Amino acid sequence: MPAPSGVVYAAAATIAANTGFLAQIDAAVGACSIKIRSSTDVLLATIPLADPAGTVDPATGVLTLSIAGPDSSAAATGTAAYGQLCDADGAVWMALPTQAGTAAVSGKLVLQTLSIVIGGTVVIYSAVLS
Fold first, then answer.
1. Is the pLDDT at 1 greater than 70, yes or no?
2. Which residues have C-beta within 8 Å of that of residue 95, sequence separation ≥ 6?
3. Which of 89, 118, 125 has its CA nearest to residue 104?
């Protein structure tokens, strides 16, 4: 087995950590959201999540956030730099970098495009945490 390039957790540890994290963000009444922001912290869009906010794979512990739909009217024009995972009360639990594309990338929010236009539709294709 080659040496890992980063930290590698046992599946049981990842399952426990992501299950606990999901329980924490889902504790508030209502649905969570992801706030997409520019590098200067301008709020560009708010993407709703389902309630519960995601699922944890029982074999690997991978947490997949459940995107409930796009933001059909972006709040501002700018380039998406990161997204904030917020609970139903608006408290920020995690920030993740953004990336354009269609395939899932662990630890990143994969958006249709990073170029956001006010009033336009913003789509997250994937939000996965290992």
1. no
2. 82, 83, 84, 85
3. 125
Alpha-carbon Rg of the chain, whole angstroms?
Answer: 15
- The dihedral through the CA atoms of 8, 10, 12, 13 has a sign that is negative
Model pLDDT for residues 49-65, shown as the tens digit of each residue: 999 999 999 999 999 99
- For residue 102, what are its two tokens? 């269609």
pLDDT digits (tens, 9 = 90+) for 26-36: 999 999 999 99
Domain boundary assignment for the chain: 11-129
CA distance 7 to 4: 7
Give the side-chain half-sphere CA count within 13 A for 130: 11
pLDDT digits (tens, 9 = 90+) for 71-88: 999 999 999 999 999 999
Tokens found for residue 50: 């389902």
- Reported pTM: 0.90
- Token duo for residue 47: 């993407």
